[in-house]
Amino acid sequence: MLSRMNDPRETIDLHDAGSMRALAHPMRLRILGLLRVEGPSTVGALAERTGEAPGSASYHIATLAKHGFVVEAPELARDKRERWWRAAHLITSWRSEEFLGDPEAHAASDAMRRVVLDSYHRELLEAIDAEAELEPEWVAASDSSDGAARLTIDEFRELNAELDAVREKWWGVGREPRPGTRAVRWMTHTFPRPER
Questions:
Q1: What are the residue boundaries of the HTH arsR-type domain, all occurrences included (predicted)?
Q2: What is the tally of structural domains in the chain?
Q3: pTM, whole model, 2 decimals?
Q4: Is residue 180 situated within a structural domain?
Q5: Is 158's pLDDT higher than 50?
Q6: What was the pLDDT predicted at 9?
Q7: Domain of 56: which CATH number?
C-alpha cells in the first residue's frame, strides 16, 4: 500500500532515512500492509498470519510504532494484557527527488523502494498461483501489461496525473466491502528508461 498519492489526513510523508530504513524490511512492510487492508490486530494474530515468531512480530510492531506507522488500539482489548494495533495512515508517500543530494537518505530510499518492489513481485507470483481457485470471469478480468513511449517531461507528468486520477477514482469506490466485491489489487510503475 505504498503510494505517492497525497491526502494529509490519511498519509504519512517520509522525509528521513530512519523511517525509510524501518520500512526497508519485508516483514515490517507485510505487517503494515495487513493492518492497512485487514484492519487492527494483535501481535499474536499477526504472528499467526505471517508465520513469524510472536517475539519477532512484536519487535517489528515496536519498530513501526517508533516511526509512526502504527498506533495502539486499546479500545479493542478485552483485558489489560491484550494489545491491539492499527495502521496510523492508509498511505505512505515520499518524493524520491528530495533525497538525491543526501547520500544517507538516498541509500535508505533506495533500500526501501527495493523491498517494496520485491513485495510487489511476490504478490504478483502469488496471484498467478491463486488463479486456479478463481472463477474464470475474475481471471479473464485480470490484466498484466506494460508499455513504452517517447514523451516530453510535460507529457510524462500528464501520464502520471492521469494514472493518479484513475487510482483515486477506484480506490474511492472500493474502500469498503460491498456485496459481490472481492479485493482487487493494482500496481503501476512509470519511470524514465535509461538511454543506451
A1: 18-90
A2: 1
A3: 0.82
A4: no
A5: yes
A6: 57
A7: 1.10.10.10
